[in-house]
Amino acid sequence: MGGIGELADDRALLGRTSTAERVADILRTRIAEGFFPPGTRLSEDSIGGALGVSRNTLREAFRLLTHERLLVHELNRGVFVRVLAVEDVADIYRTRRLVECAVVHGLGQPPFALDGLAGAVEEGEQAARAQDWKGVSTANIHFHRELVALAGSARTDELMRGVLAELRLAFHVVDDPRGLHEPYLLRNREILDALLAGERGTAERLLARYLDDSLTRIVAVYGKAVEEPDSPDA
Question: What's the whole-model pTM score?
Fold first, then answer.
């Protein structure tokens, strides 16, 4: 597992009071970043040793992430990073559309606090110029987290953190990150520009079309990717 060695670097984040929540947060981030791809078996001994936490603490962290649908426990086999079904991906997008469009709709009167959103757009554009398509994917997730953060709701932020982390499980299966993410750089910029201009309604319409188009594309690409291992030629 490529992420085990790097987990030792996260050990300092635990501080003196190691908790299952903190361990879960580290693992959630590592899963979202692709260090533990979908289908990976998570070793209690390796991860516990890297983070310097007890088996019980680690098991509680696994339980939390299983509840978040990022991990799955298979009897007599262990704990694995979840492989999403196509129906899961579609449901994630339904949730995103409900939440993200509602956030934009409820923004109130401009000007809006858009520094974080603008930073995520620039992050994505810089990554694209460097041909760093994984970086583009990460920046796109940051864009949508910053968009939801405009609501000023810790509960909504927490909800979307889990939703977007789960979505990354689908992205890691797709073999064409450039083709998947590059088209949305311009659309992120268009949504930002609409909000900068105070055109909340325009931003909401752009976002709704964005998410509908993204759903259609990711379901088609992801469905093909998860079917290929079972094809006769595999």
Answer: 0.80
